[in-house]
Model the fold of this input.
Amino acid sequence: EDQVTQSPEALRLQEGESSSLNCSYTVSGLRGLFWYRQDPGKGPEFLFTLYSAGEEKEKERLKATLTKKESFLHITAPKPEDSATYLCAVQSSGSARQLTFGSGTQLTVLP
Amino acid sequence: GAVVSQHPSWVICKSGTSVKIECRSLDFQATTMFWYRQFPKQSLMLMATSNEGSKATYEQGVEKDKFLINHASLTLSTLTVTSAHPEDSSFYICSARETVLAGDTQYFGPGTRLTVL
Done:
């Protein structure tokens, strides 16, 4: 059974204070690891897909990296508008393309 | 690109009534759509996988007679909550799988808040 664990559950940062969110996973053959951002009362917004260990992707202040056991979402010099819940999900090669989600990290960036 | 819409965005109904939620992929075709449920402060829980032209596949513990799913076209899937009760109140979110350009990425709709009185 695929499992995804995200840490920390909640993170408060000052504006400009860089940090990283962790996503640890166990999966029977990784097809893809996905990062989403979710604002309160809205659906998840797609950020990145990572397919193999060593892969990195960047978008503005966000950078996602992947190893064989975990993924990190690095946030550089965050701004208050980066406040949201960040969700990690895995898709295994044996599944019907379903995603298994972690419980998310709630990020708050204070001005 | 890759926009998914849901309608309605919120609905309030009386106990015992049925509610239909629509999920549309606006700028791509999706042979597979997914329906999720999300409780406050919790992550997404997959309810069912909807395949165009065939029966939906339900996750364990989800009543298929209560949550009717129809995927009649490559851009539309519907979820009908039949004989809704207060415990069905939740945030329902759909996603559509884009396979041509985005490498099998699921794009999510904005969600539907259902409140059953």
Remarks:
- The radius of gyration of chain B is 14 Å.
